[in-house]
């Protein structure tokens, strides 16, 4: 449906960009490493529960 809507306004389909995907993954891992990526409450879209920050350096190096 999105591809048809984009075509209707003269725009090509979306494509996967590996460079953007790798950047997003790296940035997400950094957010986890510095404990900036955590949930404030349990939500239905939070399948993994509340993220526990990695406190010690040894655990951080595993990321």
Describe this structure in words.
This protein is mainly α and 63 residues long. It has one domain (2-60). Helix content is 43%, strand content 0%. It is elongated. It starts with a helix and ends with a helix. The mean pLDDT is 74.
Helix % is 40-55%
SSE string, helices as H and strands as E: HHH
Low-confidence stretches: none
What share of the residues does DSSP label as strand, in percent? under 5%
The overall pLDDT, averaged over residues, is 74
| Class inferred from helices and paired strands | mainly alpha
Count of all domains? 1
Taking the sheet with the most strands, its summary is: none
Terminal Cα span: 37 Å
| Oligomer category | single chain
> How many DSSP-defined strands?
0
The number of distinct helices, counting runs of at least 4 residues, comes to 3
Radius of gyration: 18 Å
Categorize the overall geometry: elongated
InterPro entries: CAP_sf
Features:
single chain, 63 residues, mainly alpha, 0% strand, CAP_sf
Secondary structure blueprint with pairings:
Layout lengths: L1 H7 L9 H16 L23 H4 L3
Quick synopsis:
This protein is mainly alpha-helical and 63 residues long. Helices cover 43% and strands 0% of the residues.
